[in-house]
Design a protein that fits this description.
Structural class: mainly beta
Number of domains: 1
CATH topology: Jelly Rolls
Largest sheet: 7 strands, antiparallel
CATH superfamily: Jelly Rolls
CATH architecture: Sandwich
Number of strands: 7
Distance between the termini: 58 Å
Number of helices: 2
CATH class: Mainly Beta
Length: about 150
């Protein structure tokens, strides 16, 4: 009989894993429900009160959400996003930056900003720190572009 080396992680998980009869998959599988606003759909991909103070979400933004109708927003936090499809029009202060599929952006949300779709729908994966989560996902700033 041959023996295979066991990785340290495998040992830890094997020791702490509940029996196969228990429903421990609830802790690791997130089933996001879409939250709809005109021109914006958000899927929360992390636990609402994560221990590390960040929230992860997928967002789909369409041209229905007009950049002209939404004022720039400022709030505590930092944001990072990567573009999955489409092109993002990111306004940071006086600048407008186009962010294309496969590219990412990271900025302080204390800089006046808004995110919108450029020439068609866009999908992004975004990470907010604790301050950003409160503003974006809970409507703390009415009229916020996301």
């Amino acid at each position: 009989m041959s023996t295979r080396p066991v990785s340290p992680c495998a040992s830890i998980f094997a020791a702490s894993r509940p029996s196969m009869n228990s429903d421990w998959s609830e802790d690791v599988v997130i089933r996001p429900e879409p939250e709809h606003q005109p021109g914006l759909t958000t899927w929360l991909l992390s636990r609402e009160h994560s221990a590390n103070g960040t929230t992860v979400a997928k967002m789909r933004i369409t041209r229905e959400r007009s950049m002209k109708d939404v004022s720039l927003s400022v709030h505590p936090g930092r944001e990072w996003f990567t573009v999955l499809s489409g092109t993002v029009s990111l306004v940071l202060g006086e600048r407008t930056i186009l962010v294309h599929p496969g590219q990412a952006s990271k900025f302080s949300t204390m800089v006046p900003h808004r995110i919108g779709a450029h020439d068609g729908p866009v999908e992004i994966l975004t990470i907010f720190d604790h301050g950003g989560k409160k503003a974006y996902l809970h409507g703390a700033h009415p009229g916020h572009e996301h």
